[in-house]
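User: C-alpha cells in, sequence out, please.
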C-alpha cells in the first residue's frame, strides 16, 4: 500500500474544512477525489505533501509506505515532493516560474532529487518534453510563450521527471477547452500506465473522472458521503451529492450507455 489517509481532519481559520476523511491509494491504482467547490478535495490532496495554507491545523494520519507524513518536518516532505510523489496543479500559469525557460523547469526535479548534471538533466527534460508532446523548441521558451494546454504539458513533464510512484493531479483540465481537456486526460492515462504510477485525481466533474479513474471518494463539506468504483457512481449513485454530480456530468461530455 503506497498512500493511506485515515480520519484526516483539517481546520483552517477556525473552521473545519476536512472532517474525518479516509481512503487509500494502492500501488498502481487510479483513485479519484470528487466533489463540488468547497468540498475539501483539493485541501485533502495538498495535505498529503504538506502544502496547506499557513495556519492550517491537521490531525489524523497520512502514511506513505508506512511513514507518517502528518507532523513530518518540511525538509523531509520536500524530499518527497517531485521525487516519490509528483503533483500537477489546476493552473500552470501560477505553478510555473515566468523567469525560467521551460527546459530549466522540467530539468529542476532531476537536478534536485537525482543530482543529475546540467547536460544530463536537459537531455532527460527533452525526452520528457517529447513524451508529453510539446512542440519542437519548447525547452528554450518561457511559459508566457506557450498556450494554456502547452503550459499544462510542461507542468506534467515536471511532475513525472523524477519518475514518481504517485502522481497527484488537482483539477488539471478545468481551465482548458474540451478538445485540449480530452488530450490531457489521454496523456495522463498513458503516462500512468507506461510508468506504472498510482494516480490520485481531483475533480468536480464526474465525466472527467470516468476517463482516468477506476475508484473514487465523493466529498461534501469535508466529509466522505460515498466511496465506490467509478462505474457504480455512474450507474447506481447512492448519495444525493453523487446524483447531482452525475446530472452535471451528463450535461457536459459524458453520456451513459443507451442515452442521447
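Assistant: Sequence out:
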Amino acid at each position: 500500500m503506497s498512500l493511506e489517509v485515515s480520519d484526516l481532519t483539517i481546520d483552517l481559520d477556525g473552521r473545519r474544512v476536512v472532517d474525518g476523511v479516509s481512503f487509500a491509494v494502492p500501488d498502481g491504482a487510479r483513485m479519484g477525489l470528487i466533489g463540488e467547490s468547497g468540498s475539501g478535495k483539493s485541501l485533502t490532496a495538498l495535505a498529503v505533501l504538506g502544502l496547506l495554507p499557513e495556519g492550517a491545523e491537521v490531525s489524523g494520519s497520512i502514511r506513505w509506505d508506512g511513514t507518517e507524513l502528518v507532523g513530518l518536518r518540511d525538509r523531509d516532505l520536500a524530499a518527497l515532493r517531485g521525487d516519490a510523489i509528483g503533483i500537477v496543479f489546476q493552473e500552470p500559469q501560477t505553478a510555473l516560474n515566468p523567469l525560467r525557460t521551460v527546459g530549466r523547469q522540467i530539468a529542476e526535479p532531476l537536478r534536485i532529487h537525482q543530482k543529475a548534471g546540467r547536460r544530463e538533466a536537459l537531455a532527460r527534460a527533452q525526452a520528457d518534453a517529447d513524451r508529453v508532446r510539446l512542440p519542437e523548441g519548447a525547452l528554450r521558451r518561457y511559459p508566457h510563450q506557450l498556450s494554456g494546454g502547452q503550459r499544462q504539458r510542461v507542468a506534467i513533464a515536471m511532475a513525472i521527471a523524477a519518475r514518481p510512484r504517485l502522481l497527484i493531479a488537482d483539477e488539471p483540465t478545468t481551465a482548458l477547452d474540451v478538445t485540449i481537456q480530452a488530450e490531457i486526460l489521454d496523456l495522463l492515462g498513458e503516462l500512468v500506465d507506461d510508468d506504472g504510477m498510482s494516480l490520485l485525481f481531483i475533480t468536480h466533474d464526474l465525466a472527467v473522472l470516468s476517463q482516468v479513474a477506476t475508484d473514487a471518494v465523493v466529498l461534501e463539506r469535508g466529509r466522505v458521503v460515498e466511496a465506490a468504483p467509478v462505474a457504480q457512481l455512474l450507474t447506481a449513485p447512492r448519495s444525493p451529492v453523487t446524483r447531482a454530480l452525475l446530472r452535471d456530468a451528463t450535461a457536459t461530455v459524458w453520456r451513459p450507455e443507451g442515452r442521447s
